[in-house]
Backbone:
């Protein structure tokens, strides 16, 4: 991956709806080689996909909580079942297994605090192996997901 590929990635992370002509102009290429590079980045899995960023309030799931989960049982089968069930929950929009304590970090999006309480009590707390689930509510977003840094880390 060279500097032009990295510029393409930066521009597409800022605006995934750029036309190929506009993208080519921004990175200093003509459209045809730009499109070849984008297709190569897609084919090799560097670009995993494209999607719209939605306003949670506008679609009825503006209440978000970060939940840390500590497992009581960490045997392979229990953890695998927990992960499988979490992955199937539409309310869980992001889930990570962590090193150390806590064991998992989840981001949950629902309509409001009542919906969250229902999800927490009826669904999350009943998952296999869960010893403790702690909710963390954000006061405000300071920096939203702006994409990954695509600088050449080898040059450091």
Residues:
């Amino acid at each position: 991956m060279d500097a032009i590929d990295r510029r393409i990635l930066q521009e597409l992370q800022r605006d995934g709806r750029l036309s190929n002509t506009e993208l080519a102009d921004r990175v200093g290429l003509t459209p045809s080689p730009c499109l070849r590079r984008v297709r190569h980045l897609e084919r090799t899995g560097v670009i995993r996909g494209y999607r719209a960023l939605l306003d949670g309030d506008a679609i009825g799931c503006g209440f978000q909580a970060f939940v840390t989960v500590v497992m009581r049982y960490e045997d392979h089968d229990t953890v695998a079942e927990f992960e499988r069930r979490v992955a199937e929950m539409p309310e869980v929009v992001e889930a990570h297994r962590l090193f150390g304590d806590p064991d998992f970090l989840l981001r949950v999006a629902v309509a409001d605090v009542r919906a969250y309480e229902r999800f927490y009590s009826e669904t999350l707390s009943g998952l296999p192996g869960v010893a403790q689930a702690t909710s963390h509510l954000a006061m405000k977003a300071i920096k939203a997901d702006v994409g990954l840094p695509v600088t050449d880390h080898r040059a450091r």
Notes: The longest strand covers residues 63-71. Strands lie at 63-71, 92-97, 104-110, 130-137. DSSP finds five helices and four strands in the chain.
